[in-house]
Structures are given as structure tokens and as C-alpha cells.
Amino acid sequence: MGTLANISGKEAAKAFEKAGWAKVGQVGSHLVMTKPDQRANLSIPQHKELSIGTLRSLIRNAGMTVDEFLDLLKLYLSPPKPAQPSLASSTRAPGA
Fold first, then answer.
1. How many domains does one find in the chain?
2. Mean pLDDT by 10 residues, the chain (96 residues)
3. Taking CA 72 as the corner, what is the angle to CA 55 and CA 13, rounded to the nearest 5 degrees?
4. pTM for the whole thing?
5. Closest CA to 23 of 44, 3, 38
6. Domain for residue 87, yes or no?
């Protein structure tokens, strides 16, 4: 099991988006998210760092495990792979 320390509200919202949750709106500093097949709404505080209890409660209300959430978070936080240059575009035509 991974650790839930130092996760911001913005990062948590992006991870929940990967799980199919959609942003509905914002009330004060809380982002509200819904999912068609879930009865509950998620109200995610947009703080720089979420408390572990709050984050665990959000994960539980989303019907996920901590490990599932951390896997989604890794997908969001992992940097995109650089594009490989194609050989065709790197070669010049003769006489050019």
C-alpha cells in the first residue's frame, strides 16, 4: 500500500477524473464531482495539501481502494514520454 501524504486538491481531482468522475461546479473552495453510476457526489477541497482523513473519505465515497487511487494518481503525475523522431523526417532529400 502506498502513502497518501502531500496530495493537493487539484491532483486528487485529476486522479478522480481518470476514474470517470466529472466536474459539475465549485462551491467556495470545494470542487464538486459526479459520476453517472455513483449515488454520491465528491466535494474536494481545493487546498494545497489535503489531510489524509479527508482524502481517505473521498476515496471511500468514490467506491475505490487507496491502491486504485494511487495508481490513477501515478498516471496523472507521470511525465509524458518524449516523442521519438521518425527516421523519414530526419533524412534530407539528395540535392536539398
1. 1
2. 81 93 94 91 95 94 93 78 60 60
3. 50
4. 0.75
5. 44
6. no
